[in-house]
Write a structure and sequence with these properties.
The protein is an alpha+beta fold. It has a domain at 3-205: Ribosomal Protein S5, domain 2 (2-Layer Sandwich), CATH 3.30.230. It contains 11 helices and 13 strands. A hairpin with a 5-residue loop joins strand 7 (189-194) and strand 8. The mean pLDDT is 97. The structure holds alpha-D-galactopyranose. Alpha-D-galactopyranose (GLA) is lined by residues 34-35, 37-38, 132, 174-175, 177-178, 341-342.
């Protein structure tokens, strides 16, 4: 049974009637532009062929009842219980339920109708792995409320509402990249987003390369705290640099030349964080030019440089991610390898010659297992369409 069939069957079993619709919203992998979305930079993600599936129907009551098939657990909320993040019986919402509840909260803040739902969801985006499982849940519920609420917004608007749910309800100060990729994904295409203007376009991946995702299976706790700290460091850097560069609003506005001239004035840790961002924004711009010119080697080299920067300057890697990247970079056919997403565990993304991808995946799996004793999950992924109804 595929996941769409699973949520359909579980819905029928839980609610005693079939769902009206099934929504699907993908996870994403990011090729370049890491930790720059909240600095007005550029990102280069793709929606992937792993997704959250949501079977739903209007509940015709006050209460939204959501069943998380992956946890075999339910939760109930109403517009009145949203602010307190509790269920009608006063018990706290389970962590996973804060994503759908947060979306309802953000939509209502925006004045959009959110009729109560009966809903069952399940996902094959691994949780906490850097592939945006939470954004995929948010976008699936966004699609559901849009369908039943009688309103329509653009996919980018839906992404912004999902980001607001995550920032203000869940409490992670994330940028727009994940919700954007989940909402706006296009089959077989990379997405190129300017996180300041929110203008975006799609780019082709050369037909001779494959995107291979490798999950270390390591999951770090406390990532939201670490994540929010990184963001705060970037904001501090902007504030300090404004003394010399009064016109800047974000690290996007700081050229590498200006940064090199002024960086010594920053506290050491802030310097490292900001240097990653300024250089990464530069890398993403070079990367697009290289991609357009079909220079896969050059593009891969920038991915490798990005990993070093995330490891040494932004300090969001971990030993298992470093091992996975090191092995990958030593294998035939690998153009570039780096951690993807927020870091602190999770997945790496690898750009690999298409015909060598299966052998690459096997060797990476064996090498990682030998070095760490952990069984990784590795798959060749396909860029997929964004969130919508099936
Ligand atoms: C998480 C956030 C994104 C982005 C990445 C790092 O996935 O949700 O907004 O900041 O980390 O690039």
């Amino acid at each position: 049974m595929n996941l769409a069939e699973t949520v359909n069957a579980v819905f029928q079993q839980k609610f005693g009637y079939p769902p009206l619709h099934i929504a699907r919203a993908p996870g994403r992998v990011n090729l370049l532009g890491e930790h720059v979305d909240y600095n007005d930079g550029f990102v280069l993600p793709a929606a992937i062929d792993r997704a959250t599936y949501l079977a739903f129907a209007p509940a015709h009551t006050e209460q939204t009842t959501v069943w998380a098939a992956d946890f075999a657990q339910g939760a109930v909320f109403t517009p009145q219980t949203l602010a307190a993040k509790t269920q009608p019986d006063g018990s706290p919402l389970p962590d996973w339920a804060r994503y759908p509840a947060g979306v309802m909260w953000a939509l209502r803040q925006a004045g959009l109708e959110t009729p109560a739902l009966h809903a069952v969801f399940a996902s094959n985006v691994p949780r906490g792995s850097g592939l945006s499982s939470s954004a995929s849940v948010e976008m699936a519920f966004g699609v559901a409320w849009q369908q039943l609420g009688g309103w329509q917004v653009t996919p980018m608007e839906l992404a912004k509402l999902g980001q607001r749910a995550e920032n203000q309800y869940v409490g992670v100060n994330c940028g727009i990249m994940d919700q954007f990729a989940s909402a706006c994904g296009v089959e077989d295409r990379l997405l190129w987003l300017d996180c300041r203007s929110l203008e975006w376009e799609t780019l082709a991946l050369p037909p001779t390369v494959a995107i291979v995702v490798a999950d270390t299976t390591v999951r770090r706790k406390l990532t939201s705290g670490e994540y929010n700290n990184r963001r705060a460091a970037c904001e501090q850097a902007v504030q300090l640099l404004q003394a010399e560069l009064p016109g800047i609003h974000s690290l996007r506005d700081v050229s590498l030349t200006d940064f090199n001239r002024l960086a010594a004035k920053l506290p050491q840790e802030t310097h490292k964080r900001a240097r990653h961002v300024v250089e990464e924004i530069e890398r993403t711009q070079q990367a697009v030019a290289l991609l357009r010119a079909g220079d896969v080697n050059g593009f891969g080299a920038l991915m490798n440089a990005c990993h070093l920067s995330l490891r040494d300057l932004y300090e969001v890697s971990c030993p298992e991610l470093d091992v996975m990247v090191e092995i990958a970079q030593s294998l035939p056919g690998c153009y570039g390898a780096r951690l993807t997403g927020a870091g602190f565990g999770g997945c790496t993304v690898n750009l690999v010659a298409q015909e060598q991808a299966p052998a690459f995946a096997q060797a990476l799996m064996a090498g990682y297992r030998a070095r760490t004793g952990l069984q990784p999950e590795i798959y060749i992924c396909k860029a997929s369409a964004g969130a919508g109804l099936l």
